[in-house]
Specification:
7 helices; two-stranded antiparallel sheet; 3% strand; 192 residues; mainly alpha
């Protein structure tokens, strides 16, 4: 369009005529759209580039056993949960005794249970799309939330998401606060 608002023809435009013949200027050709193989190779190169990030699951899967020893249990579990290098990662996690036998049973079935450690949940399902900062907060930290000594009855709030909320009641009906180990082993998720 010109400043006056009139349309201007460019060489790449086509003007059909009544007889089916018309001006067919130089056809527009995008570099990536020129050939499907070029698009595929670009996508493959981009995925390889992104997979080479320092602690990506693909990079962990390609590591040797000595390099796996330097990785944290959570990073290993994310790779295990996303099906990258499962045999090597499982051997390293078992060497560290990172999960209890009950947790391994649930991880193999790709299930979680109340009281499961966060490491086992990562092994079972991989990493979440986003992590709520209150789930990983240190016990006793406020994170800007003001809350009562006990969470409200009936659910989670911004300060106490359901996953990081209090443990189930004891047999006498009083709520008990999470400890460093749950009934079967793993560290409990603490409220922030």
């Amino acid at each position: 369009m010109t400043p006056s608002g009139n349309a201007v023809a460019t060489p790449a435009m086509r003007f059909p005529l009544s007889d089916g013949d018309g001006y067919r200027g130089r056809p527009r050709r995008d570099r990536l759209a020129a050939s499907p193989s070029r698009r595929i190779s670009t996508a493959a190169a981009l995925s390889i580039l992104l997979s080479a990030c320092a602690d990506s699951p693909m990079r962990i899967a390609a590591s040797d056993p000595a390099a796996l020893q330097a990785k944290s249990a959570d990073k290993l579990c994310v790779a295990y949960g996303k099906n990258f290098g499962r045999e090597k990662v499982r051997a390293e996690l078992q060497r560290r005794d990172a999960l209890t036998p009950r947790e391994w049973e649930h991880v193999d079935k790709r299930k979680v249970f109340i009281g499961m450690s966060s490491t086992a949940a990562l092994c079972s399902w991989g990493s979440p799309d986003r992590i709520n900062s209150t789930i990983r907060a240190a016990p006793g930290r406020n994170n800007g939330c003001t809350r009562a000594p006990r969470p409200p009855i009936g659910g989670a709030t911004a300060c106490t998401p359901w996953m990081a909320a209090w443990r189930p009641s004891s047999s006498n009906g009083r709520a008990i606060r999470g400890t460093s180990r749950v009934e079967t082993g793993g560290p409990a998720l603490q409220p922030s």
